[in-house]
Amino acid sequence: MCRLDVLVLKKHLDAITCALGECGYVHLVDAVTKSRRHLLKQVGRQQDKQELQSCLKLCETLLESLGLKGTAISIVPTVAEMGVEELRTAIEKIQGEYSTLNDKIQALATQIEALAAESQALATFPVQNSSLETLQGLTHFHVLAGRLAPSTFQQASQALDGQALLLPGDSGPDSVLVLAAKRNRWAVNDILAKFGFAKQEPPALQDAVTVADRRQQLNQARTALEQELADSRRALLSLGTEHGAFLLAARKRLQFLQDIQEAQAHFGYSRYLYCVSGWIPAERQQAVRQLVAEATGSTGLVEFSEPADGASEVPVKLSDNPLVRPFQLLVNNFSTPAYRELDPSLFVGLTFVLLFGYMFGDLGQGAVLALVGLYMKFRRRQTSPELRDSGVMLVYCGFSAMVFGCFYGSVFGYEHFFPALWLNPLRQTDIIKLLLTAVSVGVVFLSSAVIVNICNQIRNRRYFEAVFDKVGLLGLAFYWGALLTALLVKSNGFQPWTIALPLVPLVLLLFREIIHNLLFHYSLFNGKSAFTVAVESIVETMETLTNYLSGTLSFIRVGAFAISHAALCLAVFTILGVMDKIPVIGFLKPLVFVLGNLLIIGFEGMVAAIQCLRLEYYELFSRFFQGGGTSFKHFSLKTDNQN
Description:
Strand content: 5-15%
Radius of gyration: 43 Å
Helix content: 55-70%
Number of strands: 12
Structural class: alpha+beta
Largest sheet: 6 strands, antiparallel
């Protein structure tokens, strides 16, 4: 990485922003805070930002109202040169047309609903085809209309005999009409009340003689309004068809302008010049120089500078290799590598996959994991890149489990399908070998982690730490010396000289601080007391001993979980064996076999993954990974050609 600073005139500000955004090389930083003596001022465009956001929100709302949000653009109008005000004027005009049609549709819908409610109310009135005016004109009669249960009609008619006439209505089986002399109205009302009669007041009719006539008028009016409503809705749809392409293009243009404004918020300016600051890959210097020249007519000034030693703000660009990228999820979940720190993605990928396969060795179950990973990677439904990368990682782990399954001779937990190519995790003679191999794998991985740390220290020019550190050259020499001593004692018996192999580097580590003070401070204790230095040195030396010992023994768990996985598979087949002796449930064996394997895949797969993460983060990362870096996030603009 190298630092980029560009000075341009105000008239070239938008051009250089677009050029840098389209190239995708630059990680922008705040030019004001990074400027020397803070001589630059912040580019203040708060009012423009608010206007743009308001216009974009209006466009988004209109698109959503027209049902066009996310619709692909087919025919695109030319909006590439339009500014925010021009776009706002055009969008507000379309918004006005939409509001007029929408208000009309709402009003028509309300009117139709009111007519339907009135018609429904009239439909329940008992007298539909008789003139209400005639009935109301019978001054010597007491006329009632209402509802009466059909089961009580005959009894009510007999009870009213001689006092009133009970007639069936024409709006349903429970509708009735009652005619009585006015002098009998109180007695008639009492008798009807006993039979549950529900009186209905006659509707007020203006132009119609009968209720049926009024209902017909209402239905005709409603039909006309429904036709008008359908025409208005078609007009609204045509509004979307007519202006949809423009609105989608306008949204894209506004988003483009918003990206430019957000980028320019990082810029600084003085009286006449604007400054753009950021980081670019060192190999892109010439390309950026040419790009600035083209965007500014060769008037822009470009300066590149190397980052200072120990600079923490330098962004880190990890590998774009699609085979390694999935394991960057594990790295970034812990922390982002610091600048000049080796990208650990490949190391993490290899160690994680091998450890997972060692603990989850089964040909059939590994194949299931691989198939699930392939589905996550290639399924048609739109998914996030992280989920697709997780699918690739699952494919790697599944393939590793398949390979170790061949070594263990295990297929869906069945260990007699073919002979094991290496060992059987449940065979008593193989268990010790399995555990010792796991420890040996741990030795290789821990040593590799220390070597990676040594490389990182050299890359950062911290040569003393590369040698005099518990995870430096002396720490590695102690570790290998201790292992070699153990092997020599086992094979040849104890020899006094062998103790020097781990002891010499350990003594040098014991005097690490004194050696550092003599080399860099020209003082034996550098202001500390001899007792303090001695205690700190002894504690650090003891920590070195326990650190390597505990780290090595931690890898025993890899073999232990391989045994645990095989034992769970054995448990499933033990259950199947018991079911053979019970004919009544024998037909459930395939179901138990499938469910048992699914349980093992889910549970043991999760456990193996967790153990892999623990070993990666606590045993390996702690030896070489500094972290605390900043991810390289290139400033990017989609080409504003509206297609």
